[in-house]
């Protein structure tokens, strides 16, 4: 019976570079959340991991690296990961470990192979201290951490076993390089994304040579369905150039709204319709992640999300950030298949 986030377990020098898989698959989120009501009964005694922070730790590097080492390590892992391929995994059941409630992940072999791949690639660059590697791994994902020493008793154990939602199958097709952070106040781990590492070479679902965000009226389409496909289906779209329209100034927004109201009233304009405010020129998005001594600067992106999920914009070097639902919708509209 242990409390997970004790002084001795908290990383003094963190956050550290980790390679993880974000387990944001809707099926698995539902599986994990099936335990939440019951876990909530333990109050502050457990730190329940919320959906955005569910993950599998592929490999953790528990030492301080400078930016340059991080960059080289991520590049090396990305290179090696091209030889790998996506893995189908069964998630479940959960069980009460000594310091956390974890979900088992099977089969273990292909997952262990991914951990080994990362360890080898990282070792070649910086020499990695990940403890002893006897090649055996124990792939798992925590759904809650104990925050008090007396939580994990026989009653807890029995209660957990009663829940047992059906196991779920998911596909793991990418890793994330992140700075991992043990959040002692929250009682779980959070991270700052650095770069995405696809397993194998990904073929995009669709292509768009250029997407200008802001040309379509997002509000008009906001409550509508997608022009093609299912709103929940994820898209990954190659974008040659992503341009955004800087937002209108507030007085311009008011002017535009006023004109629109007049137009809707079918007002007769003797001298023609009044001029709409002039929109500023579009700006090409460039990756601003630090890289080497400067910034990455790449303007080649993939954009991932669905009609109802925010766009994740990923540069050719794997750096990524989360943008808005509106951006994703415009990318989907722009990428609509021809014919
Ligand atoms: Zn970049």
Characterise the protein shown here.
The chain has 339 residues and is α+β, with helices and mostly antiparallel strands. It folds into two domains: 16-198, Cyclic phosphodiesterase (Cyclic Phosphodiesterase, Chain: A, Alpha-Beta Complex), CATH 3.90.1140.10; 206-264 and 280-334, no CATH class. The chain contains eight helices and 17 strands. Strands 10, 11, 12, 15, 16 and 17 form a six-stranded mixed sheet that branches. It is globular and about 80 Å long. The N and C termini lie far apart (62 Å). The mean pLDDT is 83. Bound molecules: zinc ion.
Question: What's the short story on this structure?
Answer:
The protein has 339 residues and is α+β, with helices and mostly antiparallel strands.
Bound molecules: zinc ion
Uncertain runs: none
Order of helices and strands: EHHEEHEEHEHEEEEHEHEEEEEEH
Q: How many independent structural domains?
A: 2
Please give the radius of gyration in angstroms: 24 Å
- The top-level CATH class of the largest domain is Alpha Beta
CATH superfamily of the largest domain: Cyclic phosphodiesterase
User: Total number of β-strand segments?
Assistant: 17
Helicity range of the residues?
A: 25-40%
Strand content: 25-35%
Distance between the termini: 62 Å
CATH-level-2 architecture of the largest domain:
Alpha-Beta Complex
Q: Please state the structural category.
A: alpha+beta
As for the CATH topology of the largest domain, it is: Cyclic Phosphodiesterase, Chain: A
Largest sheet: 6 strands, mixed
Mean pLDDT: 83
| Total count of helical runs of at least 4 residues | 8
- Shape descriptor reads globular
């Amino acid at each position: 019976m242990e409390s997970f986030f004790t002084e001795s377990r908290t990383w003094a020098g963190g956050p550290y570079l980790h390679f993880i898989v974000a387990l944001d698959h809707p099926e698995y989120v539902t599986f994990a959340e099936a335990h939440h009501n019951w876990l909530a009964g333990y109050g502050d005694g457990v730190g329940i991991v919320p959906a955005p922070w569910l993950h599998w730790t592929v490999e953790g590097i528990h030492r301080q690296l400078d930016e340059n080492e991080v960059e080289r390590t991520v590049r090396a892992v990305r290179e090696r990961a091209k030889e790998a391929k996506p893995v189908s995994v069964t998630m479940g059941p959960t069980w009460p470990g000594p310091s956390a409630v974890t979900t088992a992940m099977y089969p273990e072999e292909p997952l262990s192979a991914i951990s080994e791949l990362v360890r080898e690639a990282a070792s070649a660059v910086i020499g990695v201290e990940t403890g002893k590697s006897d090649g055996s791994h124990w792939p798992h994902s925590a759904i809650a951490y104990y925050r008090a020493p007396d939580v994990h008793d026989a009653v807890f154990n029995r209660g957990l076993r009663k829940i047992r939602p059906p196991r779920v199958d998911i596909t793991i097709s990418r890793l994330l390089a992140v700075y991992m952070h043990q959040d002692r106040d929250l009682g779980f781990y959070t991270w700052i994304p650095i770069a995405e590492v696809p397993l194998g070479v990904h073929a995009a679902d669709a292509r768009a040579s250029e997407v200008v965000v802001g040309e379509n009226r997002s509000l008009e389409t906001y409550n509508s369905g997608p022009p093609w496909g299912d709103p929940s289906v994820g898209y990954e779209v190659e974008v040659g150039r992503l341009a955004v329209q800087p937002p209108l100034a507030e007085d311009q927004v008011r002017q535009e709204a006023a004109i629109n109201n007049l137009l809707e009233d079918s007002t007769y304009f003797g001298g023609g319709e009044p001029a709409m405010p002039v929109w500023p020129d579009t700006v090409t998005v460039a990756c601003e992640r630090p890289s080497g001594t400067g910034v990455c600067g790449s303007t080649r992106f993939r954009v991932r999300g669905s009609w109802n999920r925010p766009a994740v914009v990923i540069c050719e070097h794997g750096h990524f950030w989360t943008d808005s639902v509106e951006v994703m919708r415009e990318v989907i509209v722009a990428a609509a298949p021809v014919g």
